[in-house]
Design brief:
Layout lengths: L19 H19 L3 H17 L6 H12 L3 H14 L6 E7 L5 E4 L1 H10 L3 E8 L4 H14 L3 H14 L4 H13 L3 H14 L4 H12 L5 H14 L4 H12 L2 H11 L4 H28 L4 H13 L3 H18 L1
Antiparallel strand pairs: 1-2, 1-3
Helix pairs in contact: 1-2, 2-3, 3-4, 4-6, 6-7, 6-8, 7-8, 8-9, 9-10, 10-11, 10-12, 11-12, 12-14, 13-14, 14-15, 15-16
């Protein structure tokens, strides 16, 4: 599942209200939120940013950027339910994050702060204790809202809700690659593999150089005996585009080998009653492993310190009767396992 990669670009705002007690509360809450965030104490920062938002709203100066900061911190604190609620509220409210910040530097402290437009204009006209007056427009975070909410919902296994928000996001951002990827993830997670495959093929038609989509297509194709060769081709394409794609190598090798547990059980079940048939099945098994060997060797070459690659290659060498290579991989496997402890 997708990991959340979130960051904040927070401006330490200066609050100026007529009521001193309200202003003091805002300053205190904002400082506590900022200090907690900088200390990576996201569980504390999140409700403090919501406190700032509520204080501003209750005093007629609502600023949803503080709700946004709270949502980010709830997500970073793994408080998924609260993060989902806030992101949903932000999207439903039409919040985009686009706003103009009015900046000025305090000559005495050298600190740059943001102000509301009226205060900034007054400070600028006074020409006394402030300098470096400038405005900055923040970029839109609307696409990020959809991406992050989709990730939160997918991580919470709320696949149908995730699919709904993804489709809503794609209606606004039809070329958003992440939302397209998440759409496929949601379809697959909800068991709708046919739609997922259609989704993948549509994405690959638009961008045939997406290694992840070729890999995902291969995974789906490998589950159907009729499309195993298609799966092999898809995994090969993924590796061609991303030569160190470990999962693609692994699935390619396992797809070529097939259901080995089933094959071994079948051999054992008829070994005593039909020796000729058992021999035939044994030879067919060896042939599959021999066919998989070059792919396993390429996986090892691309990921020489991957213990799964080493272990699988060791087993293939054993079945294909290459004792020297099997011993080499066995030693390498022991070395990697010792390092991992």
């Amino acid at each position: 599942m997708k990991k959340l990669i979130l960051s904040l670009a927070i401006i330490a705002s200066a609050f100026v209200f007529g009521q001193k007690d309200v202003n003091a509360q805002l300053q205190e809450a904002n400082k506590a939120a900022m200090d907690a965030y900088n200390a990576k104490n996201y569980a504390v920062a999140a409700p403090k940013f919501m406190e700032v938002y509520d204080l501003l709203k209750n005093n007629g100066k609502e600023d949803k950027v503080y709700m946004y900061y709270a949502g980010l911190n709830y997500a970073l604190a793994n408080n998924t339910d609260q993060a989902i609620k806030i992101y949903t509220d932000l999207i439903n409210s039409g919040y985009t994050g686009v706003q103009t910040n009015y900046m000025a530097k305090d000559k005495k402290t050298g600190q740059v702060s943001s102000y509301d437009k009226n205060t900034w204009e007054l400070l600028k006209k006074s020409g006394g204790d402030y300098t470096d007056f400038k405005t900055e427009q923040t970029p839109s975070v609307e696409a990020d809202l959809y991406e992050t909410l989709a990730t939160l919902l997918l991580n919470a296994k709320k696949n149908d809700e995730a699919l709904a928000i993804i489709e809503k996001g794609l209606a606004k951002f039809p070329n958003n690659a992440k939302l397209k990827e998440y759409q496929g993830t949601a379809l697959y997670a909800s068991g709708n593999t046919d739609k997922f495959m259609t989704n993948l093929k549509e994405q690959l038609a638009k961008n045939p150089n997406d290694a992840t989509n070729w890999y995902n297509l291969g995974v789906l194709q490998s589950k159907n005996p009729a499309t195993v060769n298609d799966a092999i081709a898809s995994f090969q394409k993924a590796i061609e585009l991303k030569p160190d794609f470990s999962n693609a190598y692994q699935n390619l090798v396992l797809t070529v080998i097939g259901d080995d547990e089933k094959a071994v059980n079948e051999i054992n079940s008829i070994r005593k009653t039909n020796a000729d048939k058992a021999t035939e099945l044994i030879e067919a098994r060896k042939e599959r492993f021999s066919k998989a060997l070059p792919y396993a060797e390429k996986w090892y070459q691309a990921n020489p310190n991957n213990v799964d690659a080493v272990s699988l290659l060791k087993d293939i060498y054993g079945i294909t009767k290459n004792q020297a290579k099997m011993n080499e991989m066995k030693a390498k496997e022991a070395e990697l396992q010792a390092k991992a402890k």
